[in-house]
């Protein structure tokens, strides 16, 4: 949701405020236990406790509603994001924001942290021109924990000539260290789309990692060392058109010959969503692999459309899906039974319905301008830099 909050801030040219509460973990109702035979049979009720599910979230929702905050589809909205004890508020109604803050202050022990700068490991740099999300501190902490702060940087997160397979090399003595590091890198992909594909690759060997897989993870760290402060820029470009790029690397896995789907979605020219995912089945052709990737991206487009309607963003206009495979585009737009598609699962064909209804329009793009290319395969340094610039990569810490 961080990218969607940033888009809201950029759209309204408004600042986001950060609040924190000190009683968020407390339960707001007694928890009673059924009679059980224990060494303390008289215990049937738990006192207010920390960390259980029914805590601050539901109480905060009740509180904001008593203060007059409801979902009003035809009025100016204030966006409230709550995560445990942290609250982010943004919107165009500054008077309403102040009233909401005062209402929260009267019901909870709340501290105003001022302008939003840091949230869940994500750094937020706000200015009149836009918002930049990055994870520089988080990236540097990873490098420090692994002793890679002084490593030699590289311009690619994964060697294009290397194909990782299970059992490649000696098993690691501490596989838990590998899993923890990959998990941290996975969280870093929130603001680093350029490492989504290599992280998805090394994530396939969590069960039995070997030294070759560890070397691949170290390579990702060396790439991060080159630009630890790189993030994503969000600007108000005056429109909210939804555009998705989709791509697939046919039979790219050397182990099972399954393809990799990749997509990225822009709202108003700003990168909002992206994914690199190995397909569940073996595709019989490049067209089939691309078609399956288009179906995956269409699901994301539809979900984002519902989200935009919920947030009252923009107009209910046709979404655009861009692909670089003419055969896949033809399959998507042609509902006639075809020998090449009769074996494809029915759920993949719903894209035809969305195209026929006018919800989604497909378009062809040259492979050189395919921005989803970075989510399906290892690329060379210049190609990565070109796509990152198109995706809106921005480093506020880079020298001017």
From TrEMBL:
<dbReference type="InterPro" id="IPR043502">
    <property type="entry name" value="DNA/RNA_pol_sf"/>
</dbReference>
<feature type="domain" description="Reverse transcriptase Ty1/copia-type">
    <location>
        <begin position="74"/>
        <end position="158"/>
    </location>
</feature>
<dbReference type="InterPro" id="IPR013103">
    <property type="entry name" value="RVT_2"/>
</dbReference>
<protein>
    <submittedName>
        <fullName>Retrovirus-related Pol polyprotein from transposon RE1</fullName>
    </submittedName>
</protein>
<dbReference type="Pfam" id="PF07727">
    <property type="entry name" value="RVT_2"/>
</dbReference>
